[in-house]
Known about the structure:
By secondary structure, this protein is of the alpha+beta class. The protein folds into 2 domains: about 5-50 and about 175-195, no CATH class; about 70-175, no CATH class. It is built from 6 helices and 9 strands. This is Low molecular weight protein antigen 6 PH domain-containing protein. Keywords: Membrane, Transmembrane, Transmembrane helix.
Amino acid sequence: MFHSRFNQVLAIAVWLFCCGAVAAVLVSGLGKSAEYLPLIAFGAFLAWAGLWRPAVGVADDAVTIVNVFSTVVVPWTALIQVETRYALTLVTPGGRYTATAAPAPGRLATALSRREMGRVESQTGGVGTMRPGDLPTTDSGAAAYLVRQRWEKLVAEERIELGVADSTPATRRWHWAVIAMSAALLVAAMVSLALG
């Protein structure tokens, strides 16, 4: 599974901040500032759901994209293109599926990586210009490399049936528990702050 290192570092920073906030609430006395605890719990949960948990999994049968509120499974037979313009995006005849775990670099990172970009072989064998999001030092580029490498290997081994992309659907599974917990913690935080 591919996870964004930057997002995971950010999640740890949020959790450390939340721990400090809980310590501050305990030091000041639960009676005086307990209304902040649901808000802190909401922030810690969002750090897990939105930063730590998202991932891209590459297996011999499909690519799995775990996002905040859903998981999408894209079979290799449905995949027609891999893009990295804004984030790792898997394109099928039935839709486009973006991985929040693999965002493209921002402007600063793009400016810093310009010297790394050059002429590269495109997936079709022609020569093209590398996008900043394709650089293996970026989250989108590292994830795209894993996907493209496995895809090329499976095609070379003739393990992907060709011509069935239109009839092969990607599947989406909603994370109802994460959605419900996010909503419950948000409501609890709003009610607690309003009553506090």
